[in-house]
Records
---
Amino acid sequence: MTNARRFVGKDCVVTGAGGGIGRAVALRLAAEGARVAILDIDLNGARETLFLCGDDHHGFAGRLDVRSEASIANAAAQAAEVFGGVDVLVNNAGIEKLGSIEETTPDVWDDIMAVNLRGPYLTSRIFAPQLLARAASTGGAAVVHNASLMGQVSSPRLAAYCASKAGLISLTRSMALDFATRKIRVNCVCPGIIHTDMLERRFALEANREEAYQRVSQRPPVHYIGNPEDVAAAIAYLAADESRFVTGSALTIDGGVGAA
Ligand SMILES: NC(=O)c1ccc[n+]([C@@H]2O[C@H](COP(=O)([O-])OP(=O)(O)OC[C@H]3O[C@@H](n4cnc5c(N)ncnc54)[C@H](O)[C@@H]3O)[C@@H](O)[C@H]2O)c1
């Protein structure tokens, strides 16, 4: 953990914060003094994250489906009412479904794109006025997308997921350029293998979960799997003022997998 307090007085929004990496991000930002809007399609998960943030945290939990414009607009209205503006937006919500293009039906393709790529686009677009207003009054705001190493390299039977994450890395660059002079920095993280429910759902497809865990743990050159806190630390850095000269970048957090 950290003793840093980089987010005192800052208002942050995290999507998909009801579990996994999003929960770790919300907890990290809250521990560093932020008020956090903890948003997830799973309201119970979001409420649990809020509870874990502790009694002295003054954020809120809400249900958000990043596939729906109305749902995002509703969350943005709540953030405006409770916070009066937003300093940091973390577009973390994402889904993964295995499949080559032959195995991926158009419906599955559309769903992955709707959550992983259209979701961050729509959420950024709807929160942009609040981010711009804060950037103008405080001197800076930040957006961090949770992309993936799978947007930089590829893997068999992950066609739609990889395409969505490559698109998100590209969106990061476009947004960074469009907002550069208006003081919103836009970056993304590219995690490798991180131990969350998403990974456990993959292990559940294997005959022997323990064997699969051991095998996958050996894949990164460091010979261990990352945890959500590893990614949260990188997202916090990109969201904090200390990274003021960093925009349009993709930070890989993968124990060296992509280096090989
Ligand atoms: N776990 C990994 O190895 C890994 C690696 C690289 C990138 N990522 C990315 O990190 C992000 C978080 O993944 P995770 O591993 O924590 O997964 P997870 O499945 O544990 O958590 C994802 C969260 O997103 C929420 N969510 C799903 N659909 C949503 C929607 N339509 N609207 C709002 N919320 C929604 C879920 O309810 C869940 O709480 C994803 O974007 C994922 O692609 C994960």
Note: The chain has a mean pLDDT of 98.
---
Amino acid sequence: MNKLEPLEFTKDLIKIPSVTPFDGGALDLLQSKLAQLGFVCKRYIFEDVDNLYARIGTAAPHICFAGHTDVVPTGDLGKWSNPPFEPVEKDGNLYGRGAADMKSAIAAFTCAVQNFLSSHKLKGSISFLITGDEEGVAINGTKKLIAQISEEGEKIDHCIVGEPTCPHILGDMIKNGRRGSINCTIKAHGKQGHVAYPDKADNPIPALLEILYKLQNHKLDDGAQGFQSSNLEIVTIDVGNPASNVIPSNASARFNIRFNTNHTGESLKNWIIETRNEVQQKYSAHIELDIVISGEPFFTAPSKFTEIVQDAAFEITKHRPLLSTSGGTSDARFIKNYCSVIEFGIVGATLHQIDEHVKVDDIYKLTQIYEKILEKYFA
Ligand SMILES: [Zn+2]
């Protein structure tokens, strides 16, 4: 096969408009390259989502590269300087949807493996765990894929998720954990009436205020290893009452909690329900809750594996990445139950934005870092 080149491969992937859950041939393209390198490839289709698992080698240790070929929608096409699915190089940058999140990392990892295999005898296994559904609801992607392959007996030891983790310069950050997230809507239902006759009405606002006050003023924790304190943020309070002489019938509010490993989604859910029950006893307005756990937290303690990634990044970029648990949730939350997982990829400053781009040079450097990781991992 012709030698794969990371910039060209990134461009080829960007040319495929794989907006979640549409694949458009992105997984086929990746699979064809991996098959040529000797990977055994298998596709897993869960409902409308296509997924790929590919492995080379049968022995341990087994390092896996995880990621996604889907991208977020383009937004207003008229605002892009160039069409988002026609990759363009300008001033040392590569523009296109998915340039940062995360087609460059997929190309870089594939090329790193190619380079590594051409100069080393593999003393373990390398695999790719790639979904076409990370940017959407993510129920038919990594979560089901890793459960399925584990059931089939696949045992992964370490995993690198290639999400764009560096905030400013390549090599500045590894994510070794993520906070969990829970969303809650509170609706208080009372009875509408005239402010001059409150005995004939039932104002839902005091009940809503009291539950919010109780939730907001409860200290969740003082942080956990690798994590800042958990945080509850009220994001909206809605009554929508235009009159000053009317007691409204309904009031609602919404909040989000980003939480560390002191909690689980379930434990926080129970705490919210208990708080509601306490407040409910004092009011006749009915307080209704709608709670959605959108992700559990995970933490990978610093280890030889995190050091390998840090050392590799330092050798190529001269920056030693910080281990961080900041930011939103990622598919690593589904992988953490099966193996030791960290996230490391390119600079994500423009991810999901109009004119998404990365430095061309960073694509090559990321390839070198991934190759260094493989060298150290199998040394
Ligand atoms: Zn992503």
Note: The radius of gyration is 24 Å.
